[in-house]
Amino acid sequence: MKYATLAGLSCWCPIYIALILLSLPLPLWASFPLQSSPQRQITGKVTDGNGEPLGGVNIIIPGKGRGTISDFDGTYTIQATPQDTLTFSYVGFKKVEIPVSRQEILNVQMEEDVVALDEVVLNTGYQQLPKERINGSFVVLDSALIQRSVATDVLSRLNGTVSGLLYSGGSPEIVTHNPNGRNPGILIRGISTIDQNVSRSPLIVLDNFPYEGELSNINPHDIESITVLKDAAAASIWGARSGNGVIVITTKKGRKKEAMQLDFSVNFGTEQKPDLWYDRNYLSAGDYIDIETHLFDQGYFNSYLQNSVSYPVVTPAVEILNDLKQGHISKQQAEQSLGVLRHRDVRNDYDKHIYQTALNQQYHIGLKGGAEKMTYSFSVGYDKNRHNLKRNGYQRLTLRALNTFNPVKNLEITFGVNYSNNRTDRNNQLNFGSGIQIGGFTHSGIYPYAQFAGPDGTHLSIARDYRTGFKEEMQQAGFKYWQYRPLDELYFRENSSKINDLLIKGSLKYRIAPFLNAEVLYQNERQKISNYEYFSNDAYYTRNLINRFSILNDGGSITYQVPENGGVLNVGEYDWNSHNFRGQLSFDSTYGDLHTVTTIVGTEVRELKTQGFQRTSYGYEKQFGTASTALDYSTFLPTTPSGSARIPAPDGAVLGRLNRFVSLYANVGYIYDNRLSVTLSGRNDGTNLFGVNINQKITPLWSAGAGWVISNENFFRSPALDYLKLRLTYGYNGNVYYGSAYTTGVYRSSYLTGLPAISNLTAPNPDLRWEKVKNINLGIDFRTAKNVLSGTFELYQKTGEDLVEPYPLAHNTGFRESMINSASTKTRGIDLTLNSKNINRSFKWNTTLILSTVKDEVTRYEGEVARSSIQTRMIVEGRPLNSVFSYKWMGLDPENGDPLGFLNEAVSKDYEGIINNFEADSLVFNGSSMPQFHGAIRNDFSYKDFSLSVNVLFKGGYVFRRASTSLNYPDLIDGYANSDYVRRWQKPGDEKNTNVPSIVYPANSRRNTFYNYSEVLVEKGDHIRLQDIRVAYNLKSGLGAWLPFRSCSIYTYLSNIGILWRANDLGIDPDKAPNIPLLHTLPNPFSMSFGISASF
Questions:
Q1: In terms of Cα–Cα distance, which of 448, 424, 464, 428 is closest to 353?
Q2: Where is pLDDT greater, at 1047 or 271?
Q3: DSSP per residue over 31-96, as a string?
Q4: Hey, which family's this protein in (predicted)?
């Protein structure tokens, strides 16, 4: 397997190395003393109120940029003068300052600060404020909670940690070339949009600016905190991109007067092979052969077997049955051969030859610190994952540097560089189910008795595309080897994607007055994606293409219309380049003891330019990088075995997009006597995405909020309650439609004429505008005495307005539909977070509960409801956006096992009439396919140096449509197999024990459609899942005293452990439940990781 190396830094390598070299000396500067004085060694021990040693306490000498950190057993050593003062600080404890004087031993006992434990600094991406000043809805995750998981990507670490956030999965290795269409698998407080071209994902902000690159570029080990903004008051400052919430990621930084700290972490993980036997969309070889035998006896395969023109493929069992019919073999020989096939199971071959145990590795090293007038932070990360599909993998190299300087009084300069180099290998695309198809007219899925390798490991061929006898005959005539051996394809095909991402940022911040700052920020990000797919000359795709376009002449010679030598190369190159500029004034002042005012006002300009191309080359010689160009793509050429076709033409399309945004924004906050607070926020966005009529208007997005800290009132006297705050916010967020208000199309050269051609995509609409989401949020924050119980309770309502939807146009316009702002939705719900300290002695037990409810409905929709939408998503006013509708089920006909429906107020088998009577009132509404409530319970236990954390997730109040068997015999051998086949009705009386109808021949497609979309196949999705367990041992005393670490943790992390309870009785994982047999979705395999993290 090939992986990216430092050589993959491409053209940015010299630039980045220079920037790194410029940054590296900074820690050395920080360690120099500012002045020379007589010094002596000061030692001591730091403990908590119970006398337990505290490791990792920051000990600094203010004004000298020198310090240290206490060791595992709480001891420390530092050089100081008698005139110095030592400052001791530790998260959750009150700061301690002690003059050195003549003492040489300073033992310190630190007092726990209950209030400080609850103090959280909120980063909105524009300003940092204590949470007491914020009236909006937000959640802040600190580094410890983020690092609890070992996932390669950032967003999956949010799963089960944030109320209101629903994580539906996603791969960090997904690579696209559409920056607007990425789907990280996260929803915050449901969905407030309808059209697929409107982003449903939250806005991702990295260090103050929207992040346009692939999310896999961000290394979780570089993150200091993550802030999730959920309502208008918290997120409206981001304007038209905040309708789905905002996730603000803040990376690690050095602190002034902080001693140099070196952090190191490494972990290794394994992931089991997927459980192929879980898949219900599978039939045993015996059942499959029985179906083939039945169809053979009905004459179904006659048109295949007698076709001497196109020689369509048939399976080995059908070949055996045909040989028996033709008298080539005896009945005993046929039964013996079929008996061998009946005892095979292709899943065994998949498990042995296609899949493997996945291995994941993560390495990270970081350096940070600071002096009186500067800070520094530098890190390197490397990830290497071996996928559970052989020859597939993922690799990531990340480099990051961030420095701040104060060259003169009141001026702060910040400069940072992030670099990421990713590579994803997908050489193995033989995944179970859909990875191998045998082609032909109807046969698409692989037959269950296929065999990939013999007992000695020899790669075996399977039937594909054409009859085996025809292929052998053509090979004898001089054609290329035409058989298909799946295991060969593992080595004859290469598929990879590379991402190089370089982000450079800088800022100037000047303090005009103690209460007024001016700041200018700029960020440039360039990302290059390279997709590479190569079929060697030995690959089946190449051989099949060459043979199909080869002609056997009368004299026995062969004419090759596709190059006989070389392979086929498909490449795509995509560049993203974004510029972000922001100018901002910040005001923060306190008047007397009663009034505090904070204000920011600024402007922002952003541009995102994307461009790319796709290309196909034939006869590509990998060694020399050459390809054939003299191919005829316009003419229908004769093909073998029959007919004519064009050679697949290189696309040659050039893709491009230019999005520009200009914004003005302001935010004002006022606090009276630490009791009453008011916040106002507004933003006006302009963009080239919308119509000219809209850009000429000012339509700001705004919010207002009020807060009342009841516990600070004189009348509040409650010994049990330390803190109580009531919050109310109201305002508007926005959603971006990533289509266009103008006529758009794809330009290319016609492969027929060579002349320019265009394909229309959208009709113009000069009034197209932002989608708006109205937010109302009522929240209560509380904390009991000694922080035994704390939490947040919130009620919210989101109303989507001016939502984009397709509106049908008259045919004479030249367009099928136009996108207009006319739809609306309403979403209501509750977010609850509870934190409890159940036991707080030497043995500690803390519990965190998060619970969210969400109920949505479409309140206005003018688009057409297609008849086929019951199979995907049917939008109906008054129902949830993701409603599941089904045909009413009346059981089985006891005489023949036909499914019974309901039509015109009577039981009916008029399937055509039932399906065509496509009114929502005639259907059964089963519920929403999105969970109506979800959450998690995390229990954290610790005893001395040991800790245990267990996270349990739950979802409920939703349904899913499960897959079942086709009712048509031909479909069963065409990839629509399901284990429900064995439960089918076969004789009178079976209807008492099964709901699976009889299988019929010839096919009745309407009968089949009715059954597969009837209410009998809808199941409840409610379930409880044991998501993960983390066990850790902290080396901070005793055993670890001789080690050179300041702190060290050894841990084990288990994930995807299993479902504890589910509402359905079929053992189906609701998160992995395909609704058609063609899909083969398997549960996430169990994984185990071991790691160590240390600070020096």
A1: 428
A2: 271
A3: HS-SS----EEEEEEEE-TTS-B--S-EEEETTTTEEEE--TTSEEEEEE-TT-EEEEE-TTB--E
A4: Belongs to the TonB-dependent receptor family.
- What does 765-783 look like in DSSP terms, one character per residue? -TT---EEEEEEEEEEEEE
The secondary structure element, H or E, covering residue 473 is helix 468-476
pTM score: 0.83
- pLDDT over 90 percentage in the chain: 51
Question: How many beta carbons lie within 10 A of that of residue 629, not counting itself?
Answer: 8
| 1088 token code pair | 């185990």
AA identity, residue 341: L
Gap between the Cα atoms of 606 and 736, Å rounded: 14
Q: How far apart are CA 570 and CA 932, in angstroms?
A: 44
Kindly indicate the confidence band of residue 867, based on its pLDDT and cuts at 50, 70 and 90.
low
- The dihedral through the CA atoms of 108, 113, 118, 124 has a sign that is negative
Token readout for 338 is 């079929």
Residue 1028 to residue 1049: CA distance in whole angstroms:
18
Of the candidates 817, 701, 825, 703, the residue with the CA atom closest to the CA atom of residue 770: 701
- Give CA–CA dist 469/46, Å, rounded: 83
pLDDT above 50 (res 175)? no
> DSSP of 859-889, one letter per residue?
EE--S---GGGGGS----BTS-TTEEEEB--
31 has a pLDDT exceeding 70: no
Q: Which of 904, 849, 892, 886 is nearest to 961 (CA)?
A: 886
Place of tokens 């196949």: 1017
Hey, which residues does 679 pair with through a beta bridge? 669, 705
Amino acid 105: pLDDT: 87
Give the β-pairing of 246-251 and 203-206: parallel
CB-hemisphere CA count at 13 Å for 651? 13
Nearest Cα residue to 452 out of 428, 478, 426, 475 = 428
Single-letter amino acid, residue 191: I
H or E element in which residue 825 lies? strand 817-840
Query: CB within 8 A of 134, min separation 6: which ones?
Result: 122, 233, 234, 679
pLDDT value at residue 22: 43
Contact status, residue 170 vs residue 151, Cβ threshold 8 Å: no
Per-residue tokens: 591? 């008047």
CB 420 within 8 A of CB 217: yes
Length of the chain: 1096
Token pair 């330390």 is found at 722
- Name the burial class of residue 942, with classes exposed (0-12), middle (13-18) and buried (19+) by CB atoms within 10 angstroms of its CB: middle
Q: For residues 961 and 958, what is the distance between their CA atoms, to the nearest angstrom?
A: 11
Q: How far apart are alpha carbons 98 and 758 in whole angstroms?
A: 76
Q: What is the pLDDT of residues 438-458, one digit of tens each?
A: 876 555 778 999 999 999 999
Rounded Cα gap, residues 667 and 701, in angstroms: 12
Among residues 439, 425, 431, 429, the alpha carbon closest in space to that of 489 is found at 429
Dist CA 802 CA 823 (whole Å):
6
Residue 317 main-chain phi, psi, to 5 deg: -65, -40
User: How does DSSP assign 779-825, residue by residue?
Assistant: EEEEEEGGGSEEEEEEEEEEEEEEEEEEEE--GGGS-SEEEEEEEEE
Cα–Cα distances (Å) from 334 to 34, 283, 319, 342, 448, in that order, read: 93, 21, 10, 12, 18
**Nearest CA-CA partner of 450 in 289, 323, 580:** 289
Do you find a cis peptide bond into 1085, omega within 30 degrees of 0?
A: no
Alpha-carbon gap, residue 479 to 472, rounded angstroms? 9
Average pLDDT, the chain: 85
CATH number of 33-112: 2.60.40.1120
Q: Which two tokens stand for residue 593?
A: 């003891």
What are phi and psi for residue 95, nearest 5 degrees?
Answer: -65, 145
Domain ranges in the chain are 33-112, 285-344+439-483
Residue 793 Cα to chain centre, angstroms: 28
Joined together, the tokens standing for residue 527 give 């990302």
Residue 837: closest CA among 111, 120, 92: 92
